[in-house]
Design a protein that fits this description.
By secondary structure, the protein is of the alpha/beta class. It has a domain of 82 residues. Helix content is 46%, strand content 11%. Strands 3-2-1-4 form a 4-stranded mixed beta sheet. Strands 5-6 form a two-stranded parallel sheet. Strand 2 and strand 3 form a beta hairpin. The radius of gyration is 19 Å and the shape is globular.
């Protein structure tokens, strides 16, 4: 039987509950809780939870538990981490192809790339993603930036793990390109989101930034789906073995979340922290990738 994923709007609306479900399964998988108990923790009936989780994640709750168990032993031996951290942070390699990028065909001249978007005409809008509502910044050459909106989040100046509201997310993206001509168009953002997440078309991107940062962002794309690397490992891959701190700053400045997978980059201690759009979202992204790769 072929699995049919929920629509993009449905997956976006389900994200908050599914992120809680991933946390719960990640905390309890060693006890192999049955479907009824997991569903009860989510305040859903077993059939509703089974259907919603499977349509969001592409695998059943039981398959997801098995993926965590399968990877845990090898992760522990290799990294010396806790079972939960190793299972959620390291992941399994596999053929799962979640997305594709034409990263080698940015379509920008070196001068345009370094200009930081000065003079560019960009579209800013909100549209759904599997990880909640997205803030999209799109240019004529491709996707320029993607962030995330947590509806109902308090007005705030920081990004500490509580999520940000629409105004903060838009200001964050627009503030990275102060010289650009930016207009609001939610309908265009929605068309772009569906093109990417529902049709599976390869997506052009327009990476504005210094050559060093773009080199690091390309190195992020080399991390296999469902796995992670430290900033030090990324520094080696990007040809800057003594620049782990600068590489970490470049990772943090990555404008295109999820597609340029900065969620796969970890500090030297291997913990999940310092993700711009929230640790819960980073955990959800890694576990989603892990399940598909397995």
């Amino acid at each position: 039987m072929t699995l049919t994923l929920a629509s993009l709007d449905e997956r976006a609306l389900a994200y908050d509950r599914m992120a809680r479900a991933l946390d719960h399964l990640g905390d309890t998988w060693r006890d192999w809780p049955d479907l009824a108990s997991v569903a009860a923790a989510m305040n859903l009936s077993p059939s509703h939870f089974q259907r919603e989780f499977t349509r969001w994640a592409g695998v059943s709750p039981k398959q997801f538990q098995a993926a965590l168990a399968h990877g845990a032993a090898g992760d522990l031996l290799r990294d010396g981490a806790s079972v939960l951290d190793a299972a959620l942070e390291t992941g399994l390699s596999g053929p799962g192809r979640l997305h594709d990028l034409f990263i080698a065909h940015e379509g920008l001249t070196p001068g345009e790339a370094k200009a930081g978007g000065a003079g560019a005409g960009l579209i800013l809008g909100k549209a759904p993603t599997p990880f909640g509502l997205g803030a999209w910044l799109i240019g004529p050459r491709g996707l320029v930036a993607l962030g995330f909106i947590d509806e109902g989040a308090p007005q705030r100046t920081g990004f500490e793990h509580q999520g940000v509201g629409e105004a903060q997310a838009f200001a964050d993206l627009a503030g990275r390109y102060p010289g650009a001509d930016i207009r609001r168009d939610d309908a265009e953002a929605a068309r772009f989101a569906r093109r990417v997440f529902e049709s599976g078309e390869p997506m052009p991107v327009a990476l504005y930034g210094t050559p060093f940062r773009r080199q690091v962002w390309r190195a992020l794309l080399e991390i296999p789906v469902g796995t992670t690397q430290t900033y030090g490992q990324l520094a080696n891959v990007s040809g800057n073995p003594k620049a782990a701190r600068a590489v970490g700053a470049a990772v943090g400045a990555n404008p295109i979340s999820w597609f340029i997978p900065c969620h796969r980059a970890l500090a030297a201690d291997g913990r999940l922290h310092n993700y711009h759009w929230g640790v819960a979202r980073k955990r959800a992204m890694l576990t989603y990738e892990r399940a598909h790769a397995a």
